[in-house]
Amino acid sequence: MGPLFQSLVEDSVAEIERREPEYFQRFPLTFPRGQLRLDRYRQHPSMRRYADSALDRATDAAAERLEQRGVPVAYSDEIDDPASLVLFDAALDAFAAKEQLLPIRNAPRADAAIDEILGTGYDEHRTASGRRYLVSRRGTQPLLVISALGIPIAIWKKLLSDTSHDFRIVTVENRCGDLISGGMDSDVDLTRHADDIAEVLDQEQPGPLHVLGWCNGGRIAIDLVTRGRYNIRSLTLLSPTLRGTENASKPGSPFEDRLQQIFATITRNQALAMPLVKMLARFTQPPDWDGLAGNASARAAALFALPSRESAATFLVPMSTPPLLINYARRTAADEAYPMADTLRRLGTAGIPVLLISGSHDSMVSNQATCTALANGGVAVTHAQVAGAGHYIQDLQYPYFLWLLRSFADNHNLPNAALRVDIQHSNQSDSVQLSHATTT
Predict the structure, then answer these.
(1) What average pLDDT does the chain have?
(2) φ/ψ of residue 96, rounded to 5
(3) The Cα angle at residue 222 between residues 216 and 223, in degrees rounded to 5
(4) Nearest alpha carbon to residue 71 among 116, 22, 110, 35
(5) Res. 429: pLDDT tops 90
(6) Topology given in CATH for the domain delimited by 114-251+335-436
(7) Does the pLDDT of residue 81 top 60, yes or no?
(8) Where in the chain is the domain with CATH 3.40.50.1820?
């Protein structure tokens, strides 16, 4: 089937094994056969012109490749395991890519350390006020990357090191912590972070600009692009949180609801910060796979929500000491008090193309609340939801992430071309439908 097909199949397996290295030793992979297999073929938006025999050869080649990697494949007429179906669908997407019907590429290896990637591919600058920022030495399309506050930038290694795209990346060190090590040394609200980025843009004068905001960086991105000072070509919101938006805060995500309880406790008694930090450290422990063995759906949900094993601890950096956790609580309260509903109404009339990328099993933020907030603001959105993904699409599902980002930046439109990506379009008159077309 060729190297692209094989690499994409291996990328799909790596999605699972990077979360749980022994997953396939615990739970066998099962591909569909019979009518169930044919039904999956029919669902693929790019495969309708292919004979079943051609698709059989592709999925059989994927199974052979998996066997070579030590992942045995069984077959069944009935499958209740979402993880197996996601890998089967990924094999069909790999075949679509091989046939040049889906413009996804295999993920770059990104083996180098993040400081090496930044040192060899980026120039460091400072604003007049001392704000540090990085600009890539290559690319012609300026892309401002606004990451989650306090999270080490290594989560973006693949995008930062990938030479296949034409983005000229700009990223600004925020007041919460060092770009590489992260932290939560500041409790300033999101408008201050947007002010810092605005200072960088005023200094750099990048021209027409694409903006990408991840998680709580999405709030900052929305504030920035609605200021009307810059030529914004597109806004991509990757797994954003808009919690606190008027009439759009329910349902909450499991993670944010739990944090809200912790923050309320700290607000009442800061002396409890230390035991709470110790409790939060347990969030990196793997799920009870033995307890989930008999429930394939719950097991897949737990799996898909995980980050990679090697990066799990980095997501707790902003909450790793009592002072950082206290700052986190204060900053989150300030961000949730921000008048986001008013700002979204401005975004809805700004004429900026908006792409929302979400994971089907994101437990960190509420996709449903996000869609409600955007719809209530009258924001016309293209919403791409990636099956089998959680909160870390730019890492674990990088081939799909880059395809979505590039295609939307190029023409502000996304075709339905992948079985693993559900794409919904809305305009100002019917954007409310988005809140009914997603999962939490």
Answers:
(1) 93
(2) -60, -40
(3) 100
(4) 22
(5) no
(6) Rossmann fold (3.40.50)
(7) yes
(8) 114-251+335-436
